Amino acid sequence: MSPLHDLGFDRLDEIRLPQDLDADSVRRWIQRVCRTLEITPTAFAKSAQASPSNINRFLASQDTSANLGARTIAKLFSAATSLNLERTRSPDPASTGHVDPDAFWLSSVQVAGTIIADDRGSTIRPLSAPFPLTVPVLGRYRRLKVAHLIDYDHPGQAFPRGSVVIGCEFDGPAIASGDRLLISRPDRAANRTEVSLRECLLSPNGDAWLASLDRSNDRTPDMYLGRVGDGSDIVLPPQLGWTIDYQIAATLRPERAGAKPVSFDHGAKKGLLTGAK
């Protein structure tokens, strides 16, 4: 595995907005984004659904008081993030073979929604203002797709409230034991899509199951995938009505309050406290 100081990266820092959004800084930022993403200002404006003539006129101007509006800058940044993520998901075929699957890679992803839960199950609520996130992941998971924030508490859930679940492209259809997935199915009665966080487990007799990571107290496997034998693949049977949205590449979990207190009685006897003789 490669050392962390030798990380691959996807140039998110090169498209990050400057701290000062004066006219000259915004001009330099647009030019830098275009160089980084290898696109023209016109193509950049079109991807942001902004006026290409206004963007080109702004770039050609020397007027330090004539700036783009906040809404236009926000649209440009959102487009730059999406274009950068698309490039990360679709790496250059010529370089794909050189990616060590066990090396770390800095990849960016957009946190696009929150996973909420009620009596009907879990679903995703889109964020009105998605935001980018950069995380180190193994090379095999670097094609990140989307991330979601967990916004509920349930006894036994693997990812507590405040966790961020980061998904990558699922190179299926075969599922491997230990894979963690976000799966979904339509809930037509509630006019929404139900989602569930799952882990693939193999029983001692070769049966493959998906166990809940989000709403199960004991993580009892409850979704049967079939018996695995003679090199057969594990797949999600279509008759279950669920589809795989993404594979979980990484998670961010908040520190939790209320940890069990630690006794220092034993350490005090051995002189481990500060100032002990």
Task: Identify the notable features of this structure and list them briefly.
277 residues; alpha+beta; 7-stranded mixed barrel; 6 helices; 9 strands; elongated
Concise overview:
With 277 residues, the chain is of the alpha+beta class. Helix content is 22%, strand content 31%. It has helices at residues 23-37, 41-47, 52-60, 70-89, 93-96, 265-269; strands spanning 104-118, 121-138, 144-150, 164-168, 180-187, 192-202, 207-212, 221-227, 243-252.
Descriptive overview:
- It is a single chain.
- The protein is of the alpha+beta class and 277 residues long.
- The chain has two domains: 7-89, 434 Repressor (Amino-terminal Domain), CATH 1.10.260; 96-252.
- It contains six helices and nine strands, in the order αααααβββββββββα.
- The protein has helices at 23-37, 41-47, 52-60, 70-89, 93-96, 265-269, and strands at residues 104-118, 121-138, 144-150, 164-168, 180-187, 192-202, 207-212, 221-227, 243-252.
- The protein has a seven-stranded mixed β-barrel with strand order 1-2-6-5-9-4-3.
- A hairpin with a 4-residue loop joins strand 6 and strand 7.
- Helix 1 runs parallel beside helix 4 (70-89) and helix 2 (41-47) crosses helix 3 (52-60).
- The longest helix is centred in the N-terminal third of the chain and has 20 residues, at 70-89.
- The two termini are 44 Å apart.
- The model is unreliable at 90-96 and 267-277 (pLDDT under 50).
Shape: elongated
What is the N-to-C order of secondary-structure elements (H for helix, E for strand)? HHHHHEEEEEEEEEH
Task: Give me the oligomer status.
Answer: single chain
Poorly predicted ranges (pLDDT <50, ≥5 residues)? 90-96, 267-277
Give the radius of gyration: 24 Å
Strand content: 25-35%
Structural class: alpha+beta
Q: Find the count of extended strands (DSSP E, 2+ residues).
A: 9
Helix coverage percent: 10-25%
How many domains? The number is: 2
- Mean pLDDT, as a whole number? 81
- Helical segment count: 6
Strand order of the largest sheet: 1-2-6-5-9-4-3
Biggest sheet layout = 7 strands, mixed, barrel
